[in-house]
Amino acid sequence: MVWEKEKIVGSCIIGGATFAVGASFLHLFLKGELPLGLGLGLGTRLVSFRKRRPVRVYMDGCFDMMHYGHCNALRQARALGDQLVVGVVSDEEIIANKGPPVTPLHERMVMVKAVKWVDEVISDAPYAITEDFMKRLFDEYQIDYIIHGDDPCVLPDGTDAYELAKKAGRYKQIKRTEGVSSTDIVGRMLLCVRERSNSNSHSSLQRQFSHGHNSPKFDDGGSSAGTRVSHFLPTSRRIVQFSNGKGPGPDARIIYIDGAFDLFHAGHVEILRRARELGDFLLVGIHNDQTVSARSGARHPIMNLHERSLSVLACRYVDEVIIGAPSEVSKDTITTFDISLVVHGTVAESDDFQKEEGNPYAVPISMGIFQILESPLDITTSTIIKRIVANHEAYQKRNLKKEASEKKYYEQKSFVTGD
């Protein structure tokens, strides 16, 4: 609890009667600068006020292909304490326990550090919380509680990864975010394997993703998942939970950047960080599914508009989003949102921003308020898809195993309080 002098009202009890104590009086008392007795007589007893230590909670995970479900878990964990410390599992531990990660540790670290509810990050965290690591959490990091979702986390030997924390009485549970998982997202991308396996040419990702979301199910080696579509049920409350809830201040310099932000990744995070450094308020336009499909192919976007919006909203560099932003930045958009500067990264799925005709940024260019930003990381959504395609057999095998545990979870699922 953080004490604010102007908001504090204490009390003293004298002979059984209670009297109000001013903020300055209490401030001196908390600092230990009041003389004993204070001339109030032997019968005086002061109510004890102590500034408590912040409650620190810990949550770990692979955070591979980080999505809004991960972010919501971190939001819930943060709500159980004052400070959230997050452990990111090493590549080696993931390989040993689950199979190869899609995104390497340094990219996963970028993603986790960018989540607005995260206070500290521990790199190379173990997959299972050992007794030694738990002691380190309690002693070195001053962790009060270890947090995990209501879905089971079982080690290869069949034991509970959080058994020690539960036995120590230092474990708290949050509610799993329904409708999304890394397994589900990988499954959506594994759709392209069908055409890849039936063709000798692997050069065109767009052609591999050309069948659309409503294509028939295919045999992916026994998976019952088939064609993957989002099962996310968006609610206004969830959007409010992710939103900062405030607009720009007077005379704020508002920066605008737009795009698909599909499979939200470290490249997105880094360009958003750079954009935010240019002003006081970062407004992000997120294109609707139809616009993304028209530009990138019928299989895109992998994640729908609401899923992509939540992923962007969870980023600490973002102040507000336009859900379903127009593909062209018009004069009306610039005026309505009082945009000072429109920016675009050098690394992108398309080169529309370089066109002489049909350039979606023609208006801000003509107004002299358009700027190209050097993208810090050479990563796009296609980069992530290529990683899946290149190692699809390993991911398909991993998905089959994960799908079995998820099916069991849903069969045994009961209502869990929380959000």
TrEMBL record:
Q: In which pathway does it act?
A: Lipid metabolism; Phospholipid metabolism; phosphatidylethanolamine biosynthesis; phosphatidylethanolamine from ethanolamine: step 2/3
Q: What class of enzyme is it?
A: transferase
TM spans (from-to):
12-30
Which residue range or ranges hold the Cytidyltransferase-like domain? 58-187, 256-385
One GO CC annotation: cytoplasm
Q: Which Pfam families match?
A: CTP_transf_like
Annotated segments matching region Disordered: 202-224
GO MF, one example: ethanolamine-phosphate cytidylyltransferase activity
- Specify whether NAD is a keyword of the entry: no
Instruction: Please verify whether the record's keywords include GTP-binding.
Output: no
Q: Which terms are listed as keywords in the entry?
A: Lipid biosynthesis, Lipid metabolism, Membrane, Nucleotidyltransferase, Phospholipid biosynthesis, Phospholipid metabolism, Transferase, Transmembrane, Transmembrane helix
Catalytic activity, reaction form: phosphoethanolamine + CTP + H(+) = CDP-ethanolamine + diphosphate
Q: What is its EC number?
A: 2.7.7.14
Which biological processes are named by the entry's GO terms? phosphatidylethanolamine biosynthetic process
Q: Which CDD domains match?
A: CCT, ECT
User: Which SUPFAM superfamilies does the UniProt record give?
Assistant: Nucleotidylyl transferase (SSF52374)
In this chain, composition skew of type Polar residues spans: 202-213
Family classification: Belongs to the cytidylyltransferase family.
Name of the protein in its database record: Ethanolamine-phosphate cytidylyltransferase
Q: Recite the lineage of the species.
A: Eukaryota, Viridiplantae, Streptophyta, Embryophyta, Tracheophyta
